[in-house]
Design goal:
Layout: E1 2-11, E2 14-24, E3 29-33, H1 40-47, E4 55-60, E5 63-64, H2 70-80, E6 81-85, H3 96-106, H4 111-124, H5 140-152, E7 158-162, H6 170-187, E8 190-194, E9 206-211, E10 214-217
Parallel strand pairs: 3-8, 3-9, 6-7, 7-8
Antiparallel strand pairs: 1-2, 1-4, 4-5, 9-10
Helix pairs in contact: 3-4, 3-5
């Protein structure tokens, strides 16, 4: 599904990524671990097209994401990728349902359909009775579940999560990781997760270890049919 080939990232003389290769298949939960400064978040941001590599290519099935620019790249990112960060980044003036709807509205989907899917996702994530609450009235775990629903609103090919449990206590962190597996089993959702959580990272389907800008273990070659995604301009 998602393939990165020989990804490098340089800032002047600082070489953050040094030729990274990675393939992630549909329905797979992959965690990326390593010490601070290993290049984990930089790699995730490049895979999610939030940053551009100095060299190499990122492909989503038969689409070369690194060749896309401007509004077309933004459109592909909005429709085919979801993002979860350590801090939920919910808009405080909107309630949970409205926060979840925003990417769907940006994608141009009919508002009634977006609201229906947002309500379905929030109910699936155990927030049926919290949809009308604004972020300040939600717990940290509830806010992060709203962020998960927002990431899923456009039925993305892959969800990128950057330290999604970093701001949660151990109980909520465990529940969130369990939720990722439930979503994978229910929707065949794909996740790439950067985490420092040494207890939860090994529970993934595959754990990639980064050191000094390279993947040093867990990146065995895999074969399998890829789903075709048609990107409409």
């Amino acid at each position: 599904m998602l393939t990165a080939r020989n990804i490098t990232k340089n800032y002047s003389n600082l070489h953050v990524l040094k030729g990274v290769n990675i393939t992630v298949h549909q329905g797979e939960i992959v965690t990326i671990v390593g010490s601070s400064g290993a290049g984990k978040s930089t790699l995730l941001h490049i895979l999610g097209t939030l940053d551009t590599p100095s060299g190499g290519e990122v492909w989503l099935d038969d689409v070369n994401l690194t060749a896309l620019k401007g509004s077309l790249l933004a459109d592909v990112r909005n429709k085919y990728m979801g993002f979860i960060f350590q801090f939920h980044h919910l808009l405080p003036e909107f309630n949970a349902l409205e926060n979840v709807c925003i990417p769907g509205f940006i994608a141009g989907t009919a508002k009634s359909a977006v609201r229906e899917r947002a309500a379905f996702l929030l109910e699936t994530l155990g927030l049926k009775d919290r949809m009308d609450h604004k972020p300040k009235a939600l717990s940290g775990g509830e806010q992060q579940r709203v962020a998960v629903a927002r990431a899923l609103i456009n039925n993305p090919a892959v969800v990128m999560a950057d330290e999604p449990t970093g701001n949660l206590d151990s109980k909520n962190a465990r529940e969130l990781h369990n939720l990722f597996f439930e979503l994978r089993d229910k929707f065949q959702q794909t996740f790439i997760i950067v985490t420092h959580n040494e207890e939860l990272a090994p529970l993934s389907d595959r754990q990639l270890v980064m050191k000094d800008g390279r993947i040093v273990s867990g990146n065995a070659e895999e074969n399998g049919a890829l789903e075709n995604i048609i990107v409409e301009k």
